[in-house]
Fold Os03g0859100 protein.
Amino acid sequence: MYECAVQGLNVKQLMPPYLGVELSPEDLKTGVSFASGATGYDPLTPVIVSVITLDQQIEYFHEYRKRLVGVVGEEETARIIDGALFVVCAGTDDIANTYFTTPFRSVEYDIPSYVDLLVSGAAKLLDQVAALGARRIGFVGLPPIGCVPSQRTLGGGPHRRCEEKRNYAAKLFNSRMEEVIAAKTNPATTRMVYVDIYTILQELVENGDKYGFTETTRGCCGTGTIEVTGLCDARFVDICDNVSNHVFFDSYHPTQRAYKIIVDYIFDNYLQFLLA
């Protein structure tokens, strides 16, 4: 999704990760990603899957800022950060994996109280990002988690229907975060915009034929029901012949064409507020 976004904004072709690559001065000036796949607002989530925590990502931003100062100086660094668009996107793995797949949280929290925990973590992150100098923050809400292929398989019964408890949790989190963001945003200092992706992904799942999709409930790789990320290595599993016919590439992530539709939807509905 980030690649579609940076291309749509004519920034560059790819958004490089902050870690694991040799970043050029131009990379530092035009933006990097601190994201770590499967992390979450629940501090337990990155521990379970051994990924980078959000607090560590904030530390990496501090490190990045120092490197940028070394390239362009303090004044230009402040100008770049002041004009930058920050995008926050997490939380799906909190609900899909930490709450519904592992036993650690569901025995302690019901869905509303677990959503409270996630909202607290997300609100803390927004405060941290704003304190770093961010003036434009896009906060991406949660998708219809119960309708992604793996969650249909795990919770949707023999017919693999959308699992409504997962969708309820996502919708409850989204509504709560809209309220949090409305309370925090101040156009004179920091503009925070809630970005709804639930609606557009649900539309692709329910009415995929309108967009040229012929498969909306299974991923493109393997059986399409449970394989994700590394389990979709083409050396070991079959990949479907026409990826663009599928909403999902694996059992969790949309295809590039689906992401393009989602990003176009975001641009049409939110870009004017993010860049104002």
About this structure: The first helix runs from residue 2 to 8. The chain has eleven helices and three strands.
